[in-house]
Design a protein that fits this description.
Helix content is 23%, strand content 34%. It is an alpha+beta fold. The radius of gyration is 19 Å and the shape is globular.
């Protein structure tokens, strides 16, 4: 049913090398990470993946299949002035044949990101990285698609819907619900938050909309050091902002994806006299491959790699059992 979407939107799905993928955990917290999308023209789903050693994205999507994909970072896509596209969809986890998934991932990742071949570990070490190359596929079937022409978040988006009869009738049929209760407490600060508004002048804000789907949009952000808040410099038109759990995700990469950095802040979206802001509760760094040699990257990521190997071993035992 993606065949009904405009060509410019399908080109975004095919050409972007990252998409911001949002799940909702058991506490109602939206969690956003950049991932690589895999899409074939006219396909039913947009696929993303996660490693067996860090399966939380897949676990959360399996528990709550309402997910979102935001296409807001065009670097490396080859597209000029593309739209920003938000897909709200239903996720299904493909983990039935992990050997086939690993082979598919190794093939498609190099097709999509050929420059990353030189960054791969040597063959004699690749078995040690099975926690990474063994993949869980998350297949997202679009339910609703928002399009901001030229990525302009100050304009109200165009709404496209895979349920075309709902678009024609001018409404959707999802039940609305109240946002989760936001716990009190002082903000939690981390020096990496200082990069908001500096290294990262925009970031991806994710919330849970009233219909239960994640809603994500890239917005200008700044740090309020005195109040220890991440502030929205502009309020995106048409975004269903309401107080509640929120996530602010930042990431960057080069044109060929030979390096990438990412982290996010989980907290609460609040409104005060100066506008909307996120009260930070937790900063989480992702699995990053920053600029530098393989040795430097290994040294930086070694604690995570050890943890991911243990998790992958546990996941395999769970499936074998």
């Amino acid at each position: 049913m993606t065949a009904l979407l405009p060509d410019s939107v399908k080109q975004v799905f095919e050409s972007f090398i990252t998409t911001e993928f949002t799940t909702i955990d058991g506490k109602g917290q939206p969690i956003t990470w950049p991932v690589t999308p895999y899409y074939r023209a006219g396909g039913e789903c947009i696929d993303v993946t996660t490693g067996l050693g860090y399966p939380k994205k897949a676990d959360d999507a399996e528990a709550n299949p309402k997910v979102a994909l935001l296409f807001s970072e065009p670097k490396g896509s080859g597209m000029h002035d593309p739209p920003m596209v938000l897909v709200q969809g239903i996720a299904r986890i493909d983990d039935e044949d992990l050997d086939a998934n690993r082979e598919r991932y190794q093939r498609e990742a190099l097709e999509k990101l050929p420059a990353t071949k030189d960054a791969l570990p040597p063959k004699f070490l690749q078995g040690w990285f099975s926690w990474y190359f063994t993949r869980l596929y998350i297949k997202v079937r679009p339910e609703r698609v928002y399009v901001w022409p030229r990525g302009d978040w100050s304009q109200e988006p165009e709404l496209l819907d895979s349920h075309m009869e709902e678009v024609r009738s001018g409404h959707d049929e999802e039940a609305e619900s109240a946002p989760p209760h936001s716990p009190p407490g002082d903000p939690v600060w981390d020096t990496r938050m200082e990069t908001f508004g500096d290294l990262y002048d925009t970031a991806v804000l994710s919330i849970v909309s009233p219909d239960g789907f994640p809603f994500s949009i890239r917005v200008p952000v700044a740090v309020d050091r005195n109040e220890r808040l991440v502030r929205l410099n502009e309020v995106p038109l048409g975004a269903p902002l309401q107080p509640g759990h929120a996530c602010v995700a930042a990431h960057d990469h080069d044109q060929d994806f030979t390096w990438q950095r990412n982290f996010h802040v989980r907290g609460e979206l609040v409104e005060d006299g100066d506008g909307w802001a996120v009260v930070p509760r937790k900063l989480v760094g992702g699995f990053e491959l920053p600029p530098g040699s393989l040795v430097v990257r290994m040294r930086q990521n070694l604690p995570k790699i050890r943890r991911f190997r243990k998790i992958a071993k546990r996941e395999l035992a769970k499936r074998d059992g």
